[in-house]
């Protein structure tokens, strides 16, 4: 009677230990096979000796088959008769499939290949093809897998529990690639909730949120040459010009449909190559339910979003960029996650991935949850996510979002809304340890992959190695530079002499970190207006200042990042529900900005002085930073061998004729770039491509030249090589 009661509890979905009741078990001198299949009219055991029909215990679908020990074959099959006929191996006849080492590494937080072991894994077990489902839910009373293979019935396939590590598992024969699935979790209070797989590698398109079983990797990569070159390169001493992209709104089909990964491989890649960017950066490509979050509310940390295709499609896009000689960065979001009730929030009925205390576990500014960085399994989950993008999708780097929100316990909180660390401070020590651990593991597994921090505070050593006490990032966004420069360009030139320090102050700290200069998506949304609209003046002046801004950024110390649309001065604010304003390129002013950007990127790649010593004082020196009255700035960049490149910018609409400026050497200099050139839509004021430097000291230099500075224009000069 006790066994019958347990089987009845299984049928109702309450029994917690399904493997103790279902499948084959010894009874006396023989075996009994218990089967639960709601709706079945008959169950038949099939083996090499024939068939045995099971005895119905409950009309709803509980059966048992009794065999003597000599008759029992553990590879028996079941045939289910009823509305949906089925035949296959019994899932409850298999031994545990998660190995002891995998379970140990997971519990220790040291499993670097979570996505290759846990979640849904298609494999052969004992000569049978199927899918192993596993899940971490240590505080759940019961876990079952549901999907289109079992009619989404929560009673059919409860999982086996491993109490030492909190993992659940079941191997389902016959479940193949393409199957949709979720997990049904019974919480301690008896309530049930459907959850998607945290380790899912592919999901149905929103608003659906079921995971999709993915087979073993089969994509054949063609980027071997790129990967070989990457292993020999150092990102800090190479040119880095990043084109930041939101995949869904760069360009669309005429009817508004999103481009697929394949469409982007055929159109975006040649465009980026023609422009001359060295890298692209995708706003978070991981799966996310709300399109308007641009990917920053991530739910699928191991899965490229299905909006544009399947995982192989994403690989095709990355592969195409690599074969074109262009690197790929992805935005990665380990700072927070959304509260969707089918996602990570209170996953097993408890604060599993987040802190239970909302003063630690919730981000009030965004209405999201914060990861518990002090928990081994959570650290493991996040680190394994990053390693997955490197290993399976060949990404070259990560831009880590919202690092400041991770570092400070009082980030966007009022007094009383946060708790101090164990020393009474505001620093999130667990997050600091996590970031260092993440970089240590990444440098071991993929030393040629680099990271960029979106970090807006004065936290010291963000881009310093962990061995020297830093956080380990390769680069840090220079948010102060971006704010100061855009504020300056928004001023009427009449008042710029009073804010000259907006352009010069950044050099006081320019070499304290390894910086990326961002003109990012954050600056062209939320009613801030586009870069074009933030420039002061009429259309001609806006275009001139866009060109000057691009020249200023190109010559300034630091790597470069430009959000899509900025390369041609899109007039409207970015709209993720549309595409860029490509028709505006019919306007010569906008096409001129694009051509200007293209030529600057070409020059940037050619001149080592513009990038080789980006992060040390030896690569930069002022010519004149004090010409406040005329709003003119000039400096020298140099490479490791001392070869110079000179930038001079006139930030007013007045032509500066007869402007004497010191130069590093005498003799002829080429005017390599003039942002006021006619083919860019400018007024063609300049120096006819060449200036002659006299041996006349000026600005503390041994030589000088008299220049004509174009209105709202920037010049880049290089010494003319003797023929």
UniProtKB/TrEMBL annotation:
The organism's place on the tree of life at top rank: Bacteria
Enzyme Commission designation: 2.4.1.18
- Work out whether the entry's keyword set contains Glycosyltransferase: yes
Q: What class of enzyme is it?
A: transferase
* Keyword field: Glycosyltransferase, Transferase
Q: What is this protein called?
A: 1,4-alpha-glucan branching protein GlgB
